[in-house]
Amino acid sequence: MLLPMMKEVGIRPLALLITEIGHYGKFLDIYIYSSLADYEQKTNQLLQDPRMAPYYAAVGQCIAGSIQVEIMADLPYAKHWVD
């Protein structure tokens, strides 16, 4: 449900990982943006999608804890991974 919405606004995943920890899963999703302005524009578009509210309502019932977003503005030692 989320990935098709992200694709529609042009958000590109680099890696989507899940690790099972006992009865829990830990997710690490990495996306590529050309700039912080690109991140802001695409994220705003995504959050305005009317399907987001029902998606987060359903997913929120499965999450123990919080969703964390971290932004890395530069990855100098690994630029060749994404260029």
Folded structure, characterized:
The protein has 83 residues and is of the alpha+beta class. Helices cover 40% and strands 23% of the residues. It has 4 helices and 2 strands.
**What is the SS-derived class?**
alpha+beta
Fraction of residues in β-strands: 15-25%
Q: Give the helix proportion (percent range).
A: 25-40%
Distance between the termini: 28 Å
Order of helices and strands: HEEHHH
Which word captures the global form?
globular
Largest sheet: 2 strands, antiparallel
Q: If helices are DSSP runs of H or I spanning 4 or more residues, what is the number of helices?
A: 4
Which regions are unreliable across 5 or more consecutive residues at pLDDT < 50? none
Q: What Rg, in angstroms, do the CA atoms define?
A: 14 Å
In spatial order, strands of the major sheet run 1-2
The number of E-state strands comes to 2
Mean pLDDT rating:
87
What are the key terms here?
83 residues, alpha+beta, two-stranded antiparallel ribbon
